[in-house]
Amino acid sequence: MNPLQLSLGFSSILFAVGLTAALARSNSILVLLGLELMLNAANLNFIAFWRYGPAPEAATGVVFVLFAIAVTAAETAVGLALVIAIYRHQHNVRLAEATSLKG
Amino acid sequence: MNAALIAIALVTIGAAVIALSCRNLLHSVLLLAGSWTGVAAFFLWAGAEFAAFAQVLVYVGAISMVVLFAVLLTRRSREDSAPGPAVRGRAGWALGTGGLVAVVLLVAVGGTAPAVSPSPPPVLTVRQIGEQLMGPQAAALLAVGVLLTAALLGAVVLAAAGRPGNGKDQP
Known about the structure:
The structure holds two protein chains of two kinds.
Chain A: H1 3-24, H2 28-52, H3 60-90
Helix pairs in contact in A: 1-2, 2-3
Chain B: H1 2-21, H2 25-46, H3 49-73, H4 85-111, H5 126-134, H6 138-160
């Protein structure tokens, strides 16, 4: 296997771990952390293709990763604020009980 | 070269698996900080030093602290109760789905042999990144700035909302 395939395999496994956590856990903070892990796996792909791509001088992969990190930071801030708001209303952070907006 | 990559991958994935399967949320967050450090180590290995430093600053420094505060603010004892059969069933389905996704991705990655340019690691200076950000990507940089400002203001509004009388359960 060449290093690009190894990097892509690494990011695939990391993505699957994050997906499993986001689906399996009932604590909303852990679901959010699983999402973070999936986004990190996407960033790994950007860097891997930039490193082994045909034109690594263009810096596009690194710039894309910087923007992705910024967007992820915003997403985490809003998500954790939502978790705190849910906790204030129902005194726990379990997703299965956050049904007060369900139609 | 490949041995370092495999070591980084094993440490990162191991930390992530342990973090997302353990019951103590504090341990989860601290182990995930280790996992994010592993991702930063991969960026360093691939020659993207600037992305690695951004990863350490934003993830290991800021996001883990914010998540830690959220864990401490929403702490309660029922989190340690035993999982019911519905939770177990869902965990089984989730494991199956995650395993299936992993198998599909790994088969796809292993089946295609992408052309790799066997070049030395590309040299990317901070000056080049700055010229990219200030030149062709300036509009995107501005948009990200607006997005971050709006998101953080919205987060403050969401987390601080509520009548002043019902704050007795807050620590």
